Amino acid sequence: MPTMNIIQAVNDALDLAMAADKDVVILGEDVGKFGGVFRATVGLQEKYGEDRVIDTPLAEAGIIGAAIGMAIYGLRPVAEIQFSDFIFPAYDQIVNELAKFRYRSGGEYPCPMVIRTPFGGGIRGGHYHSQSPEATFAHHAGLVCVAPSNPYDAKGLLLAALASPDPVMVFEPKRIYRGPAHGTNWSAHPKGEVPAGHYTVPIGKADIARPLRGKGIPVSLITYGAMVETCREAATKVEADGIDVELIDLRTLVPYDLPAIVESVSRTGRAVVANEAPKTCGFAAEIVALIMEHCFDWLQAPPLRVTGYDTPFPYTLEAAYLPDSGRVATALRSVARYK
Fold it and tell me: Is residue 184 very low, low, confident or very high in pLDDT (cuts 50, 70, 90)?
């Protein structure tokens, strides 16, 4: 199989989809001639033309509004928002129009479109290029939200999103688009084997990214996106402390894989949940609430969250703000103390 990074996997998925279906169109800022700020759409305008890979003005509400119209008309638009921080001018279009068209029309007007947007820190972009707003959109019924952690999932989830009858938001972890950023020690595996042809990763199905080894105190560690590799590193760190970690990559935030969460935590009795976003109302809080509702009788320790801080995202202190493997390892040791 070819070896790709996440950017290459996204580009390959879009290329396959556009070749197979003339109704697939891409629109966004700089997606055409320039190939996108992260180069995810490079070469596609040259191959498919300006009518299908459309450079837009810097107007996020216009990008999403136009894409909604295209989807209702019968096209399959893929709208790129250059950074997830920039998505809020389009918030009304997304949550009050896109998310509700199927319901408000009694099923007559589904809105099958994809919104791609890079999220999270790791590129020293400061507070306007590093936020993680996924929980904000996961809150609104009618939107599917996915967050891949590796090239295989990035391609498979995007192709699944393009086949979905409902709107899908794809939050892409830009910190691991190609590898570790700016000399940090964050783990990242930027490349992986990716099938050359068409395949899908099922939406709503989590992945056991690291199974239990069968030795030590078991702990469930639940996360998504770039934090998967950070958590994998933490799991390796605590092996010497006699802690056995099962790492769950959610892959899909809405609809989340509740059976996978319950099955893991009911076996281990301990859980740590991690996300990059601020702690208050982050997606980790939702997962902890689910664990308390469905796994309370099996818990041997209070579930813990490892998150960003409740402050605007800093520029100079980015490495201190982002949850690293040391903070995750500390949480794992804390829940393992309960016996």
Answer: very low
Distance CA 26, CA 275 (A): 29
pTM of the model: 0.95
Burial (CB < 10 A; 0-12, 13-18, 19+), residue 337, is exposed
CA angle 299, 307, 329 (to 5 degrees): 65
* Domains of the chain, first to last: 3-193 (3.40.50.970), 207-336 (3.40.50.920)
- Location of structure tokens 């395949």: 199
Q: SS3 of 207, please?
A: strand
Annotated catalytic residue 198 = no
Give how far Cα 328 sits from Cα of 72, 186, 216, 273, Å. 44, 12, 17, 9
Neighbours of 173 (CB within 10 A): 26
- Encode pLDDT of 221-256 as tens digits: 999 999 999 999 999 999 999 999 999 999 999 999
Residue with tokens 């556009």: 18
Single out the catalytic residue among 129, 139, 198, 294: 129
CA distance 184 to 190: 14
CB 170 within 8 A of CB 114: yes
3-state secondary structure of 78: strand
